[in-house]
Fold this protein.
Amino acid sequence: MTRQDDFDLSGLSDFTGRLLDLADVQFPKESRRFMQQEGNKLRRITAAKARRLVKRRSGKYLKGIKRGKVYRYKGQELAVRVYDSSPHAHLIEHGHRHVTKDGQEVGFVRGKKVFEKSRAEFADTFAQDCEDFVDEMLARGLR
C-alpha cells in the first residue's frame, strides 16, 4: 500500500492477509458489508474529531463528512473512503492564507488535519476488526 491515506497494516500477518483475500473471494457480500461498516465507524470518528477541532460552526463542514462506496483499489483490494463534500473542506484540512477584504495577506491559518488524525486514531481499531472478521469467516467456512 503506497497511498498516503492507507493504513499501515504491518501488524497483520501474511497469513491473515491471505485469509482476507480468501474471504473476499468466497464471501464477497460479507466483505463489502464489513468494509461499509468500517467506513461508517471511520466517518463517525472523523465527525467527532471535527466537532472538537473546528471551532467555527457553520454546519456545512460537519454535514459534508460522508462515507463513499466500497470499491476495488487498483482492481485488487476492497477500499472505502471517507471524505468531506463541502467546497471549503480542503482549506480547513490543509490550511489557507488569511486575506482581508481588500486583498492584503495578513497571515496563514494552519490546517486542522482532521482526516489525517482520525485515520491515525482508527488504524488500530481497523486492524483488530480485520482480525475479528477473518476469525468469523473461518468459523463460517469450517461449518
Summary: Residues 57 and 111 are 16 Å apart (CA to CA). DSSP finds five helices and six strands in the chain. The beta strands are 65-67, 71-73, 77-79, 82-84, 95-99, 105-110. The first helix runs from residue 14 to 26.
